[in-house]
Amino acid sequence: MSTLKYQSQAVAKPYFIAAIGLFVGQIIFGLILGLQYVWGDFLFPEIPFNVARMVHTNLLIVWLLFGFFGAAYYMVPEESQRELHSPKLAMVLFWVFLIAGALTVVGYLAVPYATLAKITGNDLLPTMGREFLEQPTITKVGIVVVALGFLYNIAMTILPGRKTVVNVVLLTGLVGLAVLFLFSFYNPINLVKDKFYWWWVVHLWVEGVWELILGAILAYVLIKTTGIDREVVDKWLYLIVAMAFITGIIGTGHHYYWIGTPEYWQLFGSVFSALEPIPFFMMTLLAFGAVGKRKRDHPNKATVLWAMGTGVMAFLGAGVWGFLHTLSPVNFYTHGTQITAAHGHMAFYGAYAMIVITIISYAMPYLRGQGNAASWKQQYVEMWSFWLMTISMVFITLFLTGAGILQTWLQRFDDGLPFMVVQDKIAIFYWMREVAGVVFFLGLILYIVSFFVKGEKNEKGIA
Amino acid sequence: MSEVFSKSMARNIYFGGSMFFVFLFLGLTWHTNKELPKTDNRQAITEEVALGKKVWEENNCVGCHSLLGEGAYFAPELGNVYKRFGNSKEAIKAFMKSRPVEGIPGRRSMPQFNLTEEELDAIAEFLKYSSEIDAAGWPPNIQG
């Protein structure tokens, strides 16, 4: 029994399930990596660190993309007030993306990376072997095809339908995502140029267009769960994404300090990236303001918790932890240390993992025919998983920050100690991080369990 | 927000502000590209360096190491490894050749990649080229 407004929204469900499944894979490999930090030859030489790391980061990107696609397929019909242009295309692309992703991960694990490069024809158009863009060129082509098909489907739904600000911002973000990914095919021999444009994918995704997708999903969920006026949310959303671009585009400069680019980037990068916390802070204000002045009590409390959590954790992880090391005189000492890892973990979880879980939390009861919310029992377990994952991520971040501060102090000041000597001295922080990681994994298991908890159907509904 | 601040004003800030900064960024990109020959050590790029970069990429070196501070943080920075190894390509090659296939019990160890002599020369030459990029004085000391 479906409780969907538009039947084609149902295609979101497999996307969300795939996202959660890949999330589990990501965390398992995260635990392997964390262990390899303190138990150097764990799984060596079968799964060396670089392979596990590729799987960890690539699965993250892919599950977030599954989440974004699913979110769009769920939100766009409702926002446009019409069925999705082609649910069939959405399902075809789902399988193409899932199989291509699975084959790529199998490739990483089954053969040495150099062999994978050879059999996938990296010689023809070398794009492999760069951080986060390790996928074989053929996989990258697949990603482009899937993204274009997806955009076509979404645009053909939005353009003839009702054009809301949520839709406009979401579509701009998704187009930006697809267009900027094309820079992954540009890999000049000149290392400085290679790095310069590599950031057009990486930075302009996570500190640019992805913020639009994040903002649009957050605005949508807040409208639905708090009953806040669209007029008010629309203004906020425009201003949030305006600030994201105003600060984040030139903010790319904080990656251009030490890679052989002109030194004026130290000034531009420092000033603009120091302002990058603003859009995240505005998201926090919006989320708390909307919930504080809510016009209805939506029975899905878990979703509201995730939405507020996204605001706070995105601000802390992306905003505060980004600011910590973004000024060039600070970054001179912290660049490429565990400080970066600390920031990366909390920012990705707080901004992007949590917004995907927010929309899944909101949409799943409708997709599963549970009405507008899951049972209280089910939500109770889900909220426990929220606290377990979120608090353990705070600790992961704190331990990595501790490791990073010590590393910076011991390795980067005066003559400095050699890298591996320092790594041994800070091992205790890596152990504590691993323990926090295990708790995170338990939280994730509990999150999955929450979908299978039986309980009295939620009575208090608005349908 | 009050009525004074309308939705269309917010929209104009979004579109106007974004366009302005996109063009500013493109302008700075153009200027950066013009300035790069002064710092990016392009005169050192040879066929051998190109092969070295390919070996670097196709063995996913960046999955453990950082290069000019970017990459993974599991193994030492390599942007200045040529200098750290006493400006010696031979030392880099010798290190890579001597990695034990089964690793070192309990310790992190670089895999044995079984590179050919030509590939070893190329990767060393690539790391020499990298170390001579003018990276504004980074890293702070020889430890990377």
SSE order and pairing:
The complex is a heterodimer of chains A (463) and B (144).
Chain A: H1 12-38, H2 49-80, H3 87-110, H4 113-119, H5 137-158, H6 165-181, H7 191-226, H8 230-251, H9 264-274, H10 277-292, H11 301-324, H12 328-334, H13 338-367, H14 376-412, H15 419-425, H16 427-450
Helix pairs in contact in A: 1-2, 1-16, 2-3, 2-5, 2-13, 3-5, 5-6, 6-7, 7-8, 7-10, 7-11, 7-13, 8-9, 8-10, 10-11, 11-13, 11-14, 13-14, 14-16
Chain B: H1 7-35, H2 47-58, E1 66-67, E2 70-71, H3 81-84, H4 89-97, H5 117-131
Antiparallel strand pairs in B: 1-2
From the N-terminal CA to the C-terminal CA of chain A, the straight-line distance is 14 Å
Number of domains of chain B: 2
Helical residues, percent of chain A: over 70%
CATH-level-2 architecture of chain A: Up-down Bundle
Order of helices and strands of chain B: HHEEHHH
Give the strand content of chain B.
under 5%
Would you give an account of this structure?
The complex is a heterodimer of chains A (463) and B (144). Chain A is mostly helical and 463 residues long. Chain A has one domain: Cytochrome C Oxidase, Chain A. Chain A has 16 helices and no strands. Chain A is globular. The two termini of chain A are 14 Å apart. The mean pLDDT of chain A is 97. Chain B is mostly helical. Chain B has two domains: 38 residues; 103 residues, Cytochrome Bc1 Complex, Chain D, domain 2 (Orthogonal Bundle). In chain B, strands 1-2 form a two-stranded antiparallel ribbon. Chain B starts with 6 loop residues before the first helix and ends in a 13-residue tail after the last helix. At the A-B interface, helix 2, helix 4, helix 7, helix 8 and helix 9 of A face helix 1, helix 2, strand 1 and strand 2 of B.
